Amino acid sequence: MDKNVRREIILDHYQNPVNRGLTSDESYIFQNTSSESCIDNIDLQLKYEDGKIKDIVFDGEACAICTSATSILIKTLLGKTLQEAEDIITNYKNMIEEKEYNEKVLEELIVYDEIYLQPNRKMCALLPSNALEKILEVIKDEKEKKKSVD
Amino acid sequence: MNREDFPILNQGLIYLDNSATTLKPKCVVDKMVDYYTNYTSNIHRGDYSNAIKTNQAYDQVRDIVKDFINAKDSSEIVYTTGATESLNMIALSFFKQNLNKDDEVLITKSEHASNVLPWLVLEKEKQIKVDYIPLNDEYELTVENVLKKITPKTKVISIAHISNVIGDIRDIESIGKICKEKNIYFVVDAAQSVSHIPIDVEKANVSFLAFSAHKMLGPTGVGILYGKKELLEKMEPLKYGGGMNQNFESTGDYDLKAAPIKLEAGTPPIAEVIGLGEAIKYIQSIGVEKIHQHEYELKKYLVNELEKIPNIVLYNKNSKSGIVTFNLKGIFSQDTSIYLNHYNIAIRAGNHCAKILKDDLNIKNTCRISIYLYNTKEEMDRVIEVLKQSKDIFKVVI
Ligand SMILES: Cc1ncc(COP(=O)(O)O)c(C=O)c1O
Q: pTM here?
């Protein structure tokens, strides 16, 4: 991808991120994320309904990479099934960590394909995906529980 | 000044994170390498020549520190692993034993974590009360506000000599005088001040003082706890082991050595203590006052120029140390520090371990430039130039 296009997409999501602002709706699953290695700190909330990701919102203080990655992840995951979401996150993490990945599922997230060139920023990009992964775990656990009740 | 003593500066680095840790002059590193290379041995136990030499080198530093802060006696100087350990010993050993329910400890919201958390632990454990002396409009601590906050229940005032975000210099002589009159223990966290402005623990009536070697041209892993003789004698160790005991028996009886040795269980960081002594000698050879004058001049120059840049917010224009705290408007502090790193300028972004200052400052994260003796006007000019052209910041950081 052209360097300037990539930068423009990231910058646009940093300056005008989607779904900023938390909700008091308790049907959302909440996850905070922060790390020892940087000062980014964001909260995420996700609503899962009828087998699909209905909504994701976030808030917090974070750098350009972390904020934009949160925004693009939200945009990409909206409307996806649990399995699709897991697949996207796995491939996204692989991309950031320089492992093999399937770029076809990543949509706009592909703008971070060269983040590994700045190792100290990998964590910024991974912060929101780690939090979303935790939320997906919660959904999976709940599903399992339901199954065993049924 | 003295740039030639710091080999790390030959690589084009502009180092402005001195509040986190300072660079080390070659003489300090050499002194430690000399111990490791030529006379390694433990302290207090050996009768052979190298052990005797180590003992001398190690013990001598207590006198160097004593003179540096004008303590009365070298037995008032305890070696610790750093300011954090010193402050923990003060709160969680001495004051755990000597405070009672409802006694008040006064601190401020610009204190470092290590001068807040141990008190909060005591608050939970002993039901003492931790209260905050209000800062003025410039986030500085004034003697007037200290006076206003003292109540008959105030037993301790524990403050940084220089705060690490705002960089305001607290008038410890006046506050110490008040403490003496009102019979209040006075704890001073000198981590940011000890190699920047003169300290006289006697004049300021300090009960306990804490600092780290690594913020004063010395090595990591060693620091100092100063305590008035009669207080250290009453202080119980947090650590027990070799070196600090007089005797112990299988019956359960034991005797400890006198302070400071009873507070120094185990093999200490010997090379580091020796390095600290060398660092103090180096600082004395230049003169603390001269260092302060140099860094304050540079700060004033930098602030004056940064004020002319419209998209810069300054948080501590008037404080009299070498610390400049700022943000670029609308830019997350970490992005600014990554941008500056691109030009080989090292600064710090974050809350600087003063997490409750955000209540007053209304902003969680800031960029901090902290100046020391080897920084130059040319370096300030470079920082100013790079910040001036920061409209292109995202071309660099993304
Ligand atoms: C004011 C202040 N106090 C205490 C400390 C703790 O020092 P150390 O981490 O060396 O123990 C610091 C370090 O940043 C500080 O700035």
A: 0.91
